[in-house]
Amino acid sequence: MTRAGKNNQSDLAREIGVKPQAIQYLLEPKNGATGSKHIAAIAEALDVSAGWLSNGAGDAPPVQFPEGKAIVALHDEDPLPHDAVLIRESRVRFAGGNGHITPEYEEIEDSQPATYRRSWFTREGMNPAKVRRFQVTGHSMEPFLFDTDTVLVNMAETDVRDGKVYALRYGDELRVKRCYRKLDGSLILHSDNPDHKPRDEEISPSQVNEHITIIGRVREKAGNGGL
To answer: Which of 119, 140, 198, 224 has the greatest CB tally within 10 Å of its CB?
Structure first.
C-alpha cells in the first residue's frame, strides 16, 4: 500500500480516523464491506475512485513504483506503470570474421521480463536501449553473484573502472568479473570467491586485444542464488 505515501494500513487508518483493524476488515473482499461509509474517505486518501475501490468499476489506477527502487514486482493482472521498461534476458554468442570477434545477442522470448523504472535509467545516466540482461553461471563471483543470478549490463560502459564488475568476452565465453586495468594495458580479472583459483588472472595487452571484449558494466543484479 504505497500509493499516495501510505506505506501500511496503520498510516491509512490514522489519516481517516479509524482503527487499523477497521481498515483490515474493509479491505478484505470476503467481508463484502463495499457499502461502508468509510469507502469514500479511503478512496480519497489512496487517490483512487470509490467505485473502483468498492467493486472494481472503471479503470484501475496506475501502478506506482516505490521511490528509489529500480525494479518492482507486478502481478500478471496489474497494469504497467507509466514509466515501465521491460527487459527480457538475452543470450550471446561470439561470431568471428575478418579477424574480429563480434558479440551477437538474442533475446530469450520465454524469459520473464524484469520491469524497471525509466526514471531510474535517467538518474543513473543509462539508455534502456543500450542494456542487456544475462544469466550468471558458475560460482567464481560468490558471494556478490551466485549461479543463475541475472545481471543488467550497460553496454555503453566499456572503459574499465578499477574495481567495477563487467560482463566480457573471454575467448568464446561470456564471463562476469571484477576488473582492474594496469598502466601497461594488461587486465586483471578478479574473482570475488576466495575459493576460486586463480583468484586474479592477469591478461597481457596482446592477449587482451585477441581474447577480451568488454561487453559492458554490471549495473544491477537479481536472483535467489545462495538462498
So the answer is: 140
CATH class of the structural domain 84-222: mainly beta
**Using CA atoms, how far apart are residues 73 and 46, in angstroms rounded to an integer?**
20
Whole-angstrom distance, CA of residue 217 vs CA of residue 157: 6
Same fold, 3-55 and 84-222: no
Domain 3-55, CATH class in plain words? mainly alpha
With left for phi above 0 and alpha for psi between -120 and 50, is residue 194 left, alpha or beta?
A: alpha
Rounded CA separation 221/154 (Å): 12
Q: For the stretch 143-176, what's the b/e string if a residue is b when 16 or more beta carbons lie within 10 angstroms of its beta carbon?
A: ebbbeebbbbbbbebeebeeeebbbbbbeeebbb
Q: Which of 157, 194, 201, 196 is nearest to 179 (CA)?
A: 201
- Whether 148 contacts 134, CB under 8 Å: no
Q: Which residues pair with 200 in a beta bridge?
A: 190
Residue with cell 580479472: 189
Name the residue ranges covered by the structural domains of the chain. Answer: 3-55, 84-222
- Residues 164-178 have pLDDT tens digits of 999 999 988 899 999
Find which of 9-18, 50-59, 75-84, 210-219 is predicted with most confidence, using mean pLDDT.
210-219
